[in-house]
Design goal:
Layout (H helix, E strand, L loop, with lengths): L4 E2 L5 H5 L2 H13 L8 E2 L13 E4 L2 H4 L8 E6 L16 H15 E11 L14 E9 L15 E8 L14 E6 L20 E8 L4 E2 L25 H11 L5 E4 L6 H9 L2 E6 L2 H15 L9 E2 L17 E2 L1
Parallel strand pairs: 3-12, 4-5, 4-11, 6-10, 11-12
Antiparallel strand pairs: 1-2, 5-7, 6-7, 8-9, 13-14
Helix pairs in contact: 5-6, 6-7
Length: 336
């Protein structure tokens, strides 16, 4: 006879399910002969319910991601808490093998042509064969020249790597026009761009502004890292380790997803990716194990939802009823 397995309904399950589903689940376990007194269940638990969209789920990503239906996710933004020196992530003997495990798991959840952006250190993919699962399209360098010195016996690491994978041969979405960056064209090299009169006599400027913009390439230095004075910063402890700038995540979401697509963030931290998804009209599934970060992330999402109507922002429909003071969390209707 197997020993009783303790379960907590006031913890992860209560947060992951709405009240109706939670009550149905408890009732079903009671009918099946499970004893909830003392927090013990005398029978094996039923298969877990699928994770709900537009919700931050509390728990371990390695345990919760398998509950997501295969082939249902359009984009995955995986920014694990690497480099914190105090997190269990950095106690893993081989981060490369762990990344391979993530890639294998994410591959099953992505749609054909879906994208994965995997953040990591420069050696995050060394000596592992990810090719049976996903296709590596690019290694994006996020250049951060203002990082503090990291010692006197080595060069300071001034960049992070963002590995861009797709499932299959062609991406289902790559919206270049949404992520173009400003460009000044040197007219002295006009043969590379267009025919222009000579600039040597001073009649024309030596540079020309390209209104359409250019492909941002794979070295991103114009998106600055957060500082202690950044209005986005949620907690000082998350600076440079967990929390990324919204502009950085926004570029990834804009490039590799479409409105109403499903975005998975398995290590959501302070909720930057869910906030960006709400703003851009994408659905999300987010997972986080730290309860304090979940609280901060939910507060950020609420602030995003409550923004007034502005271009590119989420706003309430004109037909929405005013909030009931006795019910501070009504069901909201959105217009895009």
């Amino acid at each position: 006879m197997h020993p009783a397995t303790p379960i907590s309904f006031e913890g992860d399950m209560a947060r992951a399910l709405p009240d109706e589903k939670y009550a149905q689940t408890v009732a079903r376990w009671n009918l099946d002969g499970c004893s909830l007194e003392g927090g013990l269940c005398r029978k094996p638990l039923s298969p877990p319910l699928p994770l709900q969209i537009n919700r931050i789920h509390s728990g371990d990503a390695l345990q919760l991601v398998p509950d997501i239906p295969d082939g249902s996710v359009d984009l995955i933004v995986c920014d694990g808490p690497y480099g914190t020196q105090s997190h269990a992530w950095d106690q893993i003997p081989n981060i490369q093998e762990f990344n391979l495990r993530l890639i294998r798991m994410f591959s099953a959840k992505l749609k054909e042509g879906g994208a994965l952006y995997l953040f990591g250190k420069p050696d995050c993919l060394d000596f592992i064969d990810y090719r049976p699962y996903l296709t590596l399209r690019s290694r994006i360098v996020w250049f951060q020249p203002s990082r503090l010195s990291q010692g006197r016996i080595n060069y300071t690491n001034n960049y992070d790597i963002v590995c861009y994978f797709i499932k299959g041969r062609r991406p289902r979405a790559f919206n270049l026009d949404d992520i173009r960056v400003p460009q000044l064209v040197e007219l002295e090299h006009r043969r590379r761009c267009e025919k222009v009169p000579s600039v040597s006599n001073g009649k024309f400027s030596k540079t020309k502004f390209n209104q359409k913009g250019k492909n941002p390439g794979n070295v991103w230095g114009e998106i600055k890292q957060l500082t202690y004075k950044s209005h986005e910063l949620i907690k000082r402890m998350t600076l440079n380790t967990i929390q990324k700038p919204e502009k950085l995540i926004e570029r990834l979401v804009k490039a590799s997803s479409l409105p109403n697509d499903l975005v998975l963030d398995p290590f959501c931290g302070t909720g930057t990716c869910p906030v960006v998804c709400k703003r851009l009209g994408r659905n999300f599934i987010a997972i986080e194990s730290d309860h304090d970060l979940i609280t901060a992330a939910n507060a950020r999402i609420e602030r995003t939802i409550s923004h007034v109507r502005t271009p590119g922002k989420i706003y309430f429909s004109p037909t929405e009823k005013p909030a009931d003071p006795c019910n501070p969390s009504p069901q909201l209707t959105f217009s895009w």
